Amino acid sequence: MLIKKPADIPSSEITDERLYVNRRKFMAAAGGLGLAAAAGILLPRALRGPGGDGGGLVSTESGGAVEGSAAQGRDELTPENKVTTYNNYYEFGTDKGDPAENSGSFRPRPWTVAVEGLVKKPASYQLEDFIKPSKIEERIYRMRCVEAWSMVIPWNGFPLSDVLRRAEPLPSARYVELTTVFRPQEMPGQRRDVLDWPYKEGLRLDEAMHPLTILATGLYGKNLPNQNGAPLRLVVPWKYGFKGIKSIVKIRLTETQPNTAWNDANADEYGFYANVNPDVDHPRWSQAKERRIGELRKRDTLPFNGYADQVASMYRGMDLRRYY
Fold this sequence. Notes:
Sulfite Oxidase, Chain A, domain 2; five-stranded mixed beta sheet
């Protein structure tokens, strides 16, 4: 972890002391049960594309570091009030402030997650049975949105692979499909024909099994706020944020590539893989630069969002301009 001298740190980047103390107490106490943020404030299709909240590198403080994590310790955390008020979560509205404003009546408990499809042990889990507090780790991930903004967020969560191994995938399983809850009475965005609801996302099985891929249950040492995807959200830090499906109720293993919300809405702009690639522009804007929320300057976008050392080998031999 890089330690800066006080003179080198802008006041906007200093974590509130109460938050820091509470977070350390939280981590020491047992990792607590947190719930995670969903990706995707939806704007009308013709106007904008999806974005996402989320991550960067695995924290060394929690003992959960992944060897060789990109830019380890060099990223300042995005202030918590930015992370919880600037969100893409189209189920609650199409503006960045809508999720925080419109998600107050959403009920993240009780919660059930079904694991099904090409597995030996399909099951339906209550959230408390699904998540073991002893397995929760703090992970600091750099997250990148297709709208050229990014955040660095301290997530609390556990590897998706833990769930998949418990289910015992069949040899024919090649993909993982995830589905968001459908509750239009609590999620006003679902009353509009913006996407085909419920929101769906998918990964290849090897991507889903990668140790950087987590199911997030909290952020900043607290339960995940509704606007960030409570109670359970996917975080895949080398992909654009719209892959980070929120409020997950179903995980299904399949042999064929599943349909996904944004790829179905506009396949020419939003590919299934959605790996961060500065050399592949969105048709309506460049992806070569990004702006970290809370900063004025722009920075270069890193291939695979800075995680190339960890994940690039999974795509060896693929044409990443075709499989974008």
